[in-house]
Amino acid sequence: MSAPAEGERIAKRIARAGLCSRRDAETWIRAGRVTVNGTLVLTPALVLSDEDRITVDGQPLPEVARPRMWRYHKPAGLVTTHRDPQGRPTVFQALPASLGRVVSVGRLDLTSEGLLLLTNTGALARRLELPATAWTRRYRVRAHGAVTPERLSVLAQGLTIGGVRYGPIEATLDRVQGANSWLTLSLKEGKNREIRRVLEHLGLTVNRLIRIAFGPFQLGTLAVGEVAPIPAKVVREQLGALLPE
């Protein structure tokens, strides 16, 4: 087995082939399920060359899949995780098995709805989540309480709440419906529960939160619970240099 300094760790190679996460791959290796060039491997620290032959449970490792992406209309009531310690239903349990193993680009919390991007490539998901990518997330928000466009305008400068700094948010008041206000918010950071916290600071209580766009990708008319592949040409055009080699 060759182990060049510029090679790739075995757990990462297994994860890139789409069989499991890198953490699961490390567990499989320690459990004696993986061989390289016919020799049992028990350490996930092994570095591979392109010529090394890997098997998992006696089966050759699949070729590394080309990066693919899907749009998913997440319903409220699902957590965006592969395993939930509290036993709540997850996004990945709800997805069709035909997708194979996918990961999400960022998250939507339990009660949030709307566009969730999925990919078969963990490296791509991590790149798209980086603050440097600076993709705009756009949301439709229903919140209990009254607010004026002038009051919303303070969000454009960013806020510090409880010692946490939130970046600029573009917010518009779309309409008032009884005791609720419908808003459209656009932001780039997407900190945990950011929208709920900044609107609470303005005296509003969010009771519905729908992501309608993430970067260049739109929710559009995708039905709740529906998954739609993003054409490879569109992925190449929109992501360019962000795509892993």
TrEMBL record:
Enzyme Commission number, as recorded: 5.4.99.-
Alphabetical keyword list: Isomerase, RNA-binding
GO biological process: enzyme-directed rRNA pseudouridine synthesis
Annotated catalysed reactions: a uridine in RNA = a pseudouridine in RNA
SUPFAM superfamilies to which the protein is assigned, alphabetical: Alpha-L RNA-binding motif, Pseudouridine synthase
Pfam families with a match to the protein in the record: PseudoU_synth_2, S4
Gene Ontology MF term list: RNA binding; rRNA pseudouridine synthase activity
InterPro entries: PsdUridine_s_RsuA/RluB/E/F_cat (IPR042092), PsdUridine_synth_cat_dom_sf (IPR020103), PsdUridine_synth_RsuA/RluA (IPR006145), PsdUridine_synth_RsuA/RluB/E/F (IPR000748), PsdUridine_synth_RsuA/RluB_CS (IPR018496), RsuA_PseudoU_synthase (IPR050343), S4_RNA-bd (IPR002942), S4_RNA-bd_sf (IPR036986)
Class of enzymatic activity (EC top level): isomerase
SMART domains: S4
Database matches in Gene3D superfamilies: Alpha-L RNA-binding motif, Pseudouridine synthase I, catalytic domain, N-terminal subdomain, RNA-binding S4 domain
Domain RNA-binding S4: 8-69
Family: Belongs to the pseudouridine synthase RsuA family.
Protein name: Pseudouridine synthase
